[in-house]
Amino acid sequence: MPLNVIVLGPPGAGKGTQAERLAATFGVPKISTGDILREAVHAGTDIGRQAAEIMSAGQLVGDELMIEIVRERLSRADVARGFVLDGFPRTVTQAVALDEMLDGRGEVTVLHITVPEDEIVRRLTTRRICEACGATADPGVAPVAPCARCGGALVQRRDDGEAVIRQRLQVFERETRPLVAHYRRRPRFFTVDGHTAPGEVASRIRALIGSGASAAVATRSGGA
Ligand code: AMP
Fold it and tell me: Measured between alpha carbons, how far is 19 from 112 in angstroms, rounded to an integer?
């Protein structure tokens, strides 16, 4: 049975961190549409040129382009045993397209990570990524430290300024929050409290994935 996982949640919920851990644990690729777009911007490709301004403004790149990017990625051989999707889908149109793409590919687990808004803003304004390899630095690492993975310089993401963060949160509420309703009645939809240490969140997620449980709810309520 392949492990097909969708990680859903507001910016700063820890989707990327958890997707990466999960992918490493189960030996399946992590597919992050934000990373794919940032790489394209970095490389100066056509897609990168189309996406750069939209991303810096905290808006969403068009559904058609995003759906094609993911369709192509999911057609590669390395997803035969599954995948962890981080940052896609982000709109109902994308979710409907993904349902079609995944039809007949086994069950899908949806992890909805919640974190209160003031914590999101705190996390994002202090987040640093590596200028060279794009890795997100562990929280608490000094901003002047080199990247733990490649030694590159740590910088703030272009869309992590406070005004753009507020914009991204509004876009999340308007465009992405409706996906909770889209997925919530699926047998493997889980809400996970992301307002705790990454290791703790990761072990709860592993327990949910391994348990074959059909429903679970965060132990702490509230939050985005
Ligand atoms: P992320 O790294 O997931 O926070 O994504 C960074 C930015 O890339 C977002 O704010 C959007 O501008 C763009 N982006 C990433 N994934 C998508 C998607 N599925 N649909 C539209 N835009 C996206």
Answer: 12
3-class secondary-structure state, position 108: strand
Give the closest residue to 167 by CA, choosing from 15, 17, 56, 9: 56
Q: How much is the average pLDDT of 102-109?
A: 94
Residues 67, 94 contacting (CB under 8 angstroms): yes
The 8-class DSSP code of residue 79 comes to G
pTM of the model: 0.89
Nearest Cα to Cα of residue 208 among 2, 3, 32: 3
Going by pLDDT thresholds of 50, 70 and 90, the confidence category of residue 214 is very low
Structure tokens at 184: 């919530």
Pocket around ligand 1: residues whose beta carbon is below 6 Å from it?
11, 33-34, 37, 54-55, 58-61, 66, 87-88, 90, 94, 159, 168
Q: What is the rounded distance in angstroms from the CA atom of residue 5 to the CA atom of residue 195?
A: 20
pLDDT at 162 over 50: yes
User: Atom of ligand 1 at shortest distance to CA of 33?
Assistant: 16
| Helix (H) / strand (E) containing 222 | none
Helices (H) and strands (E) in the chain, counts: 9, 7
Find where tokens 């149109």 sit: 93
Query: Exposed (0-12), middle (13-18) or buried (19+): which is 163, by Cβ within 10 Å?
Result: exposed
Q: Is residue 222 over pLDDT 90?
A: no
Distance CA 13, CA 6 (A): 14
